[in-house]
Structure to design on (513 residues):
């Protein structure tokens, strides 16, 4: 996450080259899969990056991926490498003559003017690979005209953007948020953008608010995982900074539970900054359901109402639209400018994955409730729905209930086989610092779920978790939790992309406590 990343994305757009950004936390094998699929002419990287005190040798990962790709018949002619000297010097970087080129040796010598390569509105702008349920990454393809119009417009209105704003989105450009709301949306509006290379809790949990004060950030857009993590570290890290420049907050990536929403609003925003709790996906390109700051009342945990022109519908299992207050599957009825156009090289999969479940609709894969005021409440992925004795229970719903307990900092819920109920509810719970595990607390947590959702949603098992297995972008790896819960420890798969792989051994050790 250095300046040269969005600069490179925009340079590609200017000359009509299609870019595909790969998150730096991926393994060489994941990068190899993507290289094999899109067959790039050039790979651009930096030699290394710092995450806290840790140096990540990116060039080494790229070398391994390109070596494997060449053995499988895909040869990349050029690897342009930026020397990120705060992490690693040139002389410490492994080099392949003839293929590798230093950015600093060639880019500064180029002209500072470059004619625009005008392309058709429907010409591809970028590919972004997203996880598929089959394990093979899907290359989501976004086009130029509609995508740019949509990200620019949604950014402007959902954050109430003004020319005087200083905007900071903590997302990585390796994810769709870093494309739409670090690079394209803000910069098409001429916004001043803060970029941060590093982790949000280094050297301590006050790092975000230190940056907010230093650069007078007015709009701060982040993920619920980060909010919950900072909430766990206590209010002192927040309140020691003024944060008086902030005027709009934003949330992205997953449904934000009401207690985290309230902490974000009351503590971080001093009860004066509206929160744009945005629902959208890699595939949608930009915000689909989002509050417009100051335009309508907010409800903690609700993405509220659709963006202009978006027509979300909730359907039942047979694909019938449900009116009024209801729960079901979230679909979109008509097209919108930011929609992706295909899955690269696999249009059939595009149609079956997104348009065949409910013919005539784009199916989001998410469950949703709509209340009497027409507000939308996302209940998580449909594949994150647990069926307990015929009751369909969204994991996000149970997690939200657990996290509302004053001694629970974070929770992740998965389904496990149950010989009577079909599926049982298995909850991994991280406690607030300094709180010891106890049988009494376990019962108290189960009671909170019973009280908030009902006895049918009470967890069958609570597994104490000092921390949860997360990717470097902060997403909880539920696949790993399901394997631990099911005791399928020989099927854990690749855990190298986790921010801290040692978490897995800790959880296995605590399995019977």
């Amino acid at each position: 996450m250095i300046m040269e990343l969005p600069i490179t994305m925009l340079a590609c757009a200017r000359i009509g080259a299609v870019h595909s950004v790969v998150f730096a936390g991926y393994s060489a094998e994941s990068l190899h899969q993507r290289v094999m699929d899109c067959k790039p002419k050039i790979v651009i990287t930096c030699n290394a990056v710092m995450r806290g005190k840790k140096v990540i040798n990116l060039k080494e990962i790229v070398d391994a991926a390109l070596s494997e790709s060449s053995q499988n018949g895909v040869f990349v002619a050029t690897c342009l490498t930026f020397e990120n000297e705060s992490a690693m010097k040139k002389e410490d970087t492994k080099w392949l003559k003839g293929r590798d080129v230093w950015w600093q040796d060639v880019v500064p010598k180029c002209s500072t003017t470059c004619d625009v390569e005008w392309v058709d509105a429907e010409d591809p702008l970028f590919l972004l690979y997203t996880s598929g349920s089959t394990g093979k990454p899907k290359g989501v393809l976004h086009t130029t005209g509609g995508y740019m119009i949509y990200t620019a417009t949604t950014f402007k209105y959902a954050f109430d953007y003004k020319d005087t704003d200083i905007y900071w989105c903590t997302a990585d450009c390796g994810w769709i948020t870093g494309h739409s709301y670090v690079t394209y949306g803000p910069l098409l509006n001429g916004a001043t953008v803060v970029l941060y290379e590093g982790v949000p809790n280094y050297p301590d949990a006050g790092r975000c608010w230190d940056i907010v004060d230093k650069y007078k950030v007015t709009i701060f857009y982040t993920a619920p995982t980060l909010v919950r993590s900072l909430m766990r570290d206590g209010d002192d890290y927040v309140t020691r900074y003024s944060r008086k420049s902030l005027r709009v907050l934003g949330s992205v990536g997953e449904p934000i539970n009401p207690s985290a929403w309230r902490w974000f609003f009351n503590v971080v925003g001093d009860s004066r900054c509206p929160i744009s709790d945005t629902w959208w996906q890699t595939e949608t390109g930009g915000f689909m359901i989002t509050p417009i700051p100051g335009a309508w009342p907010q409800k903690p945990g609700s993405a509220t109402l659709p963006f202009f022109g978006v027509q979300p519908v909730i359907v039942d299992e047979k694909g019938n639209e449900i009116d009024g207050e209801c729960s079901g599957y979230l679909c979109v009825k008509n097209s919108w400018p930011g929609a992706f156009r295909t899955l690269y090289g696999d249009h059939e999969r595009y149609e079956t994955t997104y348009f065949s479940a409910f013919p005539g609709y784009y199916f989001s894969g998410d469950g949703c409730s709509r209340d009497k005021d027409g507000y939308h409440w996302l209940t998580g992925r449909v594949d994150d729905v647990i069926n307990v004795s015929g009751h369909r229970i969204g994991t996000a719903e149970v997690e939200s209930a657990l996290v509302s307990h004053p001694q629970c900092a974070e929770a992740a819920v998965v389904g496990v086989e149950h010989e009577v109920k079909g599926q049982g509810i298995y909850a991994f719970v991280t406690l607030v610092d300094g709180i010891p595990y106890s049988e009494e607390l376990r019962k108290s947590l189960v009671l909170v779920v019973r009280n908030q959702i009902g006895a049918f949603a009470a967890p069958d098992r609570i597994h104490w978790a000092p921390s949860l297995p997360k990717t470097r972008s902060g997403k909880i790896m539920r696949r790993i939790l399901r394997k631990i819960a099911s005791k399928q420890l020989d099927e854990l798969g690749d855990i190298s992309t986790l921010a801290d792989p040692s978490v897995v051994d800790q959880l296995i050790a605590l399995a019977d406590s």
